Amino acid sequence: MTRLRFCAAGLLLVLLMNSPPTGALPQHQPVPGGVAVIELPATCGERPQVRFRDRPVMVVAENERWFAVVGIPLSMAPGPASLSIDDPDGPALPLTFVITEFSYPEQRLTISNKRQVDPTADDLKRIAGDRREINQAFRSWDEEPVDTAFHLPAIGPRSSAFGLKRFFNEQPRSPHSGVDIAAVDKSDVVAPAAGVVVATGDYFFNGNTVLIHHGQGLVTMYCHMSEISVQDGDRLSAGDLIGKIGQTGRVTGPHLHWGISLNQVRVNPELFLVEPIPAQ
Predict the structure, then answer these.
(1) How far apart (Å, rounded) are the C-alpha atoms in residues 63 and 24?
(2) What is the pLDDT of residue 45?
(3) CA torsion, points 175, 178, 183, 185, in degrees to nearest 10?
(4) Contact by Cβ (8 Å): 153, 191
(5) Could you tell me the domains of the chain?
(6) For residue range 60-104, what is the model confidence (pLDDT) as tens digits?
(7) C-alpha distances out from residue 243 to 6, 19, 181, 209, Å
(8) What distance in Å separates the CA atoms of residue 222 and residue 245, rounded to the nearest whole number?
């Protein structure tokens, strides 16, 4: 895999190998539903502006180098993919990377509340409104520096992994867009890193939910809580209480569904953790 080096004072093209960094950045796992961490060409110290699938991409500094942190959709096919890097002196420059194949296992769940599997017409109207609010939160963007070293938002084992091909009452549904942590009912849910609350609500499938924007399109979501302890606009530090574990919405028991959206696609939250979620 190669990259191009260029400088705003005049394009200097040099072929170099593209290797992911180590340290506080997310894990480099360029698979559907994963994260690609890509070193960018030198730009005379200025933060590069990068886009992927016509959306802005997080760019962070590490060891005096710039890296694009790219969320890859679960639906994206393996193979070559391309970023575009804005060049103030000419057309945007492409930077190619490769998405590798990855297979997620299946999960089959029995839901006793039939409306949570086959919603009524009124339910569908509510679900559409919920989706609009959540998608608006996922579109959050600013240019603030981002702390991508996340800590666990709840204490408990992982009960469902990201990306599972899900079947509810034997009916196929969308893949699991987060990880489930089987924490004790009414135990604390905390912010894994600094951020701003961009949405709260009681949603049909997700129950009591909080969404936090951590900067540059990195948004975390916390679902099924018994209570919410924050309000829209609250500025949080890592470890601040945001709510309590519960079993609201579509659930089979008390747990936290924790999701991450990066450049408006859902990715595996475990790639951002500085410590692993305990096995169940």
Answers:
(1) 11
(2) 66
(3) -80
(4) yes
(5) 2-99 (2.60.40.1590), 106-272 (2.70.70.10)
(6) 988 888 999 999 999 999 999 999 998 777 778 899 999 999 999
(7) 47, 39, 14, 9
(8) 9
